Amino acid sequence: DQQVKQNSPSLSVQEGRISILNCDYTNSMFDYFLWYKKYPAEGPTFLISISSIKDKNEDGRFTVFLNKSAKHLSLHIVPSQPGDSAVYFCAASVGGNTPLVFGKGTRLSVIA
Amino acid sequence: DTEVTQTPKHLVMGMTNKKSLKCEQHMGHRAMYWYKQKAKKPPELMFVYSYEKLSINESVPSRFSPECPNSSLLNLHLHALQPEDSALYLCASSQTGLPPYEQYFGPGTRLTVT
Predict the structure, then answer these.
(1) Residue A89 confidence (pLDDT) above 90
(2) Which residue on chain B is closest to A105 by alpha carbon?
(3) Which residue in the set B6, B101, B110 is minimally distant from A97, CB to CB?
(4) Which range (A102-111, B37-46, B68-77) has the least confidence?
(5) In chain B, % of residues over pLDDT 70
(6) Which residues in chain A are contacts of B6 at CB distance < 8 A?
(7) Would you call B16 exposed, middle or buried from its count of C-beta atoms within 10 A (0-12, 13-18, 19+)?
(8) Closest to A102 (Cβ–Cβ): which among B42, B91, B100?
(9) Which one, of B109, B106, B18, B20, lies nearest residue B66 by Cα?
(10) Which residue has better confidence, B97 or A8?
(11) Which of A100, A108, B4, B93 fits A91 for a cystine, CB–CB 3.0-4.6 Å?
(12) Is the dihedral of CA A111, A49, A35, A45 positive or negative?
C-alpha cells in the first residue's frame, strides 16, 4: 500500500520553462512534506519542505504547494535549468523523527 | 556544516566476508538512519537510532547489524550477505522532536556482493 505516490515516472521540460512535479498521499496523519533531489550514485539532497499548516512555501526557484483537501502537493521549478535534471522524490512524515515515507520518484530532464 | 559523510564510497565483498559501513555527522543531530536503495526505487528504511538507541528496525535480516557508538557515528556491520543485498546504502541524520524533520543524507556506499 503506497502512502505517497508520484504517478509520473518521468518529465521532460525545456530550459527556462516551468517544471511541475506532482505528489499524492493517502495518510491524513502526515503533517510534514519534503522534496529531495537525487543525482545518480549520490545521496538525496533536501530541497524544500512544507508543514501541513501552510499551503505554499517558496525558496528561490522552488515553490511547493500543498492542497490538504485533495491530499496533493506539487513542486514548481521556475525557470528550469539543465542542472535541475535529476530524480525528485516526494516524502512525508507524521512528525517527530518517525521515518520518512518516500514516493517512487520522478525523473526530470531539462532540455537546453 | 550540513554534511553527512560515508565510507567507503564503493565496496565489493564476497558472501563470506565481514565488512562495515561507516557514517559520520557533526550537526548535533540525535537521530540517525540507515536506508537501502535499489536502482529506480525510493530509499527503503532499514534502521533508526534515536539518542544512540535503536528505535526502529524494519525487519531487516540479522546479516545486517547496526551500531551507534556515539552521537556522531553510525556503523552498519555486514556479514554473510547475499547478491540481492547489492545496493546503495544511505545514511541520514536529523534533529529529533520538533519540526523541521529534514533528514540530511550522505552520498552513500555502493555495495556489490559477489
Answers:
(1) yes
(2) B42
(3) B101
(4) B37-46
(5) 95
(6) 43
(7) exposed
(8) B42
(9) B20
(10) A8
(11) A100
(12) positive
